[in-house]
Amino acid sequence: MRGTINKTVVYLFAIFFLLGSVLSGCGTASTTKATPTDNVTASGSEAKGNQPTTEKKKRIALVVQFNIGSFSSQYIAGVKEEVEKLGGELTVLSGDNDLAKMASHLDAAVTQQFDGILLDHGRADSLTPGVQKALVQKTPIVAFDTGLDVPGVTVVEQDDIKLAEQTLNKMSEDVGGKGNIVKIWVAGFTPMERRQIAYKAFMDKNPGLKEIAAFGSASANTALDTQAQMEAILKQHPNKGDITAVWTAWDEFAKGATRAIQQAGRNEIKVYGIDMSDEDLQMIQDQTSPWVATAAVDPSDIGRVQARYLFKKLNGEQVPDKVSLNPVLVTREQLPKEPVKMADLKKYVKEWGTSTQGQ
């Protein structure tokens, strides 16, 4: 009897073992069946243009001629914001206002095989060799205010002629087309040199305006240096009416000139600038400030637009070689009395900071 029971137990155990194996096999089959469905879903996402979550971030190099003043800092912030938004990581390489150093940084970015390169200012003659190396290894480039004219390189530019004309026309209107003008400008920068072309053409057409002094230099302390130089000019022309207005080709120049004029108590002199920052806005809004108008493109917008076009190139899209950004004239009359920041400016100047180029 015991032997019979033992045989029965062994038999039942064998049946249960076989059933377990079958059930286990069914579970495996079910899991395998789900896998192709997952693969189809992933393929569908890729077909729609969504990047897989495991894809590495694009390494982007931003090579700048200089990082001086609030315009540059806001421009770089705009680039960084858009690069990160589009799935990249940004490395900023500054030439510290040394064209040879900037060219060296460009060569390093090419050698290190960044996925894409952005250029800010600089000169075509010093940048072209590095740009050509990048194109050979198929590294896309988008430049801002460099003067480059190389097929395959997209150049984003402010309309520097229009920037100058807007402020010069406003100055002429305010002073009645007559008066003594101080110009603050410096050579060696592509946008500055284009603005000088507009200035010369304007002065040739307006004989009632006379340039009595011109100076300017770019340094790590441009505004402070400009202030000292403007103080010297004011001493050379000490009487009311000796100087009617100051035209500046850069907001760092306008800041220095404005401070010198205020400290000298010569607020009958009006200042006109180019470019814009939060600090500039506060100075223009000050009812006692000689700085009354500026023309600019939102620097953060410039950075965002430039980054968008680079990622279009990285995605294999067709991109034009020239992208022009329209400037906006901002005057004290347009602004409220309470302080505003750049982020709020479009409430008062409708054309400001609304570019969707490259989207």
TrEMBL record:
InterPro entries: Bact_Solute-Bind_Prot2 (IPR050555), Peripla_BP_I (IPR028082), SBP_2_dom (IPR025997). GO terms for cellular component: outer membrane-bounded periplasmic space. Residues 33-53 have a biased composition (Polar residues). Pfam families: Peripla_BP_4. It is found in: Cell envelope. SUPFAM superfamilies: Periplasmic binding protein-like I. Residues 60-318 form the Periplasmic binding protein domain. CDD domains: PBP1_methylthioribose_binding-like. Residues 33-54 are annotated as: Disordered. Transmembrane segments: none annotated. Its main location: other. GO terms for molecular function: carbohydrate binding. Belongs to the bacterial solute-binding protein 2 family. This is LacI family transcriptional regulator. It comes from Brevibacillus laterosporus. The lineage of its organism: Bacteria, Bacillati, Bacillota, Bacilli, Bacillales.
